[in-house]
# Entry
Amino acid sequence: MKKYSIVIFIFFSYTSIIDAQEKTNFTLQHVIEQAQDKSLKAKLAQTQKELSYYQFVTYKSDLNPQISLYGNLPVYNKEYFSVRQPDGSIKFQSISQSNSNLGFSLSQQLPFSGGELSLNTDLTRFDDFKGRIKQYSSTPIFLKLTQPLFGTNELKWKKKIEPLKLEESKKQYIQDIENIAQQAIGFYFDVIDAQNNMQIAQSGLLVSQTNYNIETKRINLGTTTEDKLLQLELQTLRSKQDLEKARYNYRKAQLNLKTFIGIKNNEELDLLVPQIIPIFTIDMEEALKYAKENRPEFIAFERKKQEAFRDVAIAKSAKQQANLTASYGLNNSGNNLSTAYKNPNDQQRFSFGFNIPFLDWGRRKARYNTAKSLEKLILTTNEFDEITIFQEITALITDMKLLSSNILLAQKTDSVAHRRFNIANNLYQSGKLSITDISLAQGEKDNARREYIGALRAYWDGYYLLRRVTLYDFEKKKSLVLPK
# Structure
């Protein structure tokens, strides 16, 4: 890609049109940087990025061993309960008891199977206060395995999906920042438009008042008509109305810009029209390649696809459910701690639970078919969205060539229209041109200036849109996405 630059000379004379205030000069780049750093939208984007990061940290922590201390200290129970006697009668007997237990567990989820393996130790104490009995039960060590069978291994799917979510959030943040830049351009040129309209209104008022004074002298000399004088007076009044309206729109545009970029003081921003415009020859294939490498949508396409595959697997595994639980360890009891831990015995537990429906009226099959249809829909939608992105970039690159040439043409038109108006105004003041002719020349001059500002707005909006849709800086020739 080859870069060119053209220098645009802007002849704006910013005069004291509104109440005198202290002004601070702001270029377009200053406003964009302020918006990307201080605006509320920038803070929201940063917060969303942090949230995604900590969600990923949470996922990573689930893969690490978990150490837990658990227990109940104590569980006290004092009540009457019924005891059936040998003759069938009921006798109520009071109890006053306490149960306490304390345990320590080291557990690890198994990513390859979706189960959980834990190493535990446990101590229980029982007190019967009425019988003055105290007992201990200890499990110095036992190993426990909990394993779902035929089910979906959620950890396996998280291992595929969670890193995609993190990468997507990083690129989404950069895209959000670029989107803020493009929005800032809109507010920036709203103020530029308002400044331009104030200048046009003030210039029009000055011309109308000058020509009105000249026409007044001609009335006294008898070389003009009262109709022309009244037409100029009406034009002067309209110019005053235009100036008041332009002042209002200017204050409103200033407030909107400052609110967006996060400036809370009453200081007026004096915006400078961009003078150096970067022009690029962009290779279409390279631009599409940058978009595919950098944009979060392409990460989202893969994430949505994996989530669809996961949902199908979940729906398929729901046809039958089975869980295996097994543990092996050492256990003993005694009236004191030393006895409870002396010569412990084997402790073994095993359970196998299952749930296999024989008749569910097609509910599980319908859920599975729904998941398969959603999978197909997501894959088709991803393909359509990818084509749409490429079409958008292709059209934008074509537009950029036209937008850059429009600036040169609009600049020349503005210059010609300005010179023509000056000539026409001099001819009118010398009595060689009609009021209609001078009004037409003035309208063409004003429209040419507005079209020039519009061409600048369209160019810069397109330039930052191109950055946003590719996440690539064509001026510095580098990716906006930081390397992994």
The first helix runs from residue 28 to 38. DSSP finds nine helices and twelve strands in the chain. The two ends are 25 Å apart (CA to CA). Residues 1-21 have pLDDT under 50 and may be disordered.
